[in-house]
Amino acid sequence: MTAFLELDGSFGEGGGQILRTSLTLALLTGKAFRLVRIRANRPKPGLQPQHLSCVRAAAQISHAEVHGDTLGSGELTFIPGRVQPGQYHFSIGTAGATSLVLQTVYYPLALAANEPSEVVISGGTHVPKSPCFHFLETTWRSWLEKLGLRVRLKMRRPGFYPRGGGVIEAQITPGSGVQPLVLVPDQAAHPPIPRWGRQLAVTGFSAVAGLPLSIAERQAHRAEKRLRQAGFDAEIEIQSWEAGPGTVLALVWQLGPVPTLFAALGERGKPAERVADDAVDELLQHAERAPQAVDPHSADQLLLPLALAPGRSAFAVSTVTLHLTTNAEIISRFIQRQITVTGSEGGPGQVVIE
After folding, report:
1. pLDDT tens, position by position, 113-159
2. d(CA 68, CA 78)
3. Residue 12 and residue 25: Cα distance in Å, rounded?
4. What is the pTM of this model?
5. In angstroms, rounded to a whole number, what is the distance separating the alpha carbons of residues 179 and 302?
6. Residue 49 and residue 32 in one domain
7. Which of 46, 62, 253, 298 could make a disulfide contact with 260, Cβ separation 3.0–4.6 Å?
8. Nearest to 262 by CA among 158, 142, 138
């Protein structure tokens, strides 16, 4: 008889992260799980299309046995099989985040498969409250390289919420394992990027897709002005993309352990200046609290691979989030590692994995 880990999907942050982490670790550890009360406290509880895509992608790469994978389901049973490398195409069917589907299947295909894989995912590439494609390309991929892992990423076509229609591609090379990470703040900083005699702390781009270029110019102008006022020299490239409609401003903090991207998206009725303010506010909060620490978005994403690494890992975070502490608890249900998060929620902190 199969033994199941019993997990509560309403615990802690109570969102889709609990599901995604459980799927990834089930594939890596071979442990089956039963997840109840999935997203129970959300306005739309249960499995939504984006979450179903993660479940079905995880099932497809391992021929898993799954029960409860229906729209709106509050319970899911997942019995993993053996991870199989290959060429996969996952279609979310909505503007759901392609990045989250990729992160669900990446580690199993990189660590439990013995041959390369190609993964193509269609859906949203720039979606609220999810890592955009350029965060994956700039920040996530850089962290993977520090851990001894490799992935090649390409955005074939952008897809903004709510229309979607974007496509991303990942070429995944199997790795021999994950390297531990110990970040000492004074050693984690990178010097500014020299460019035309300037020392740039922030780079980035302001892009529109299917919208007037003046929107991108206004976003960039506002962001550069505010960053100069804060004492940071910045250079933001103006870009125009096909498809859309949509707009994004991405700012890359260059003085941390890896290039760290903070992005904000436009939406109907939201002025370009507010888009810029959202991205600048997030970057400045990080830079003022702990400029050489791990950003709040990367912090919970690093926990899973580092829990698989031998030995001790430790790093500072600029902001302790509920995502971080929730993920630490879920990971410890699958893997016998002690994950300690110190610091108050909303403030800087420290993470140690032993």
Report:
1. 999 999 999 999 999 999 999 999 999 999 999 999 999 999 999 99
2. 9
3. 18
4. 0.94
5. 12
6. yes
7. 253
8. 138
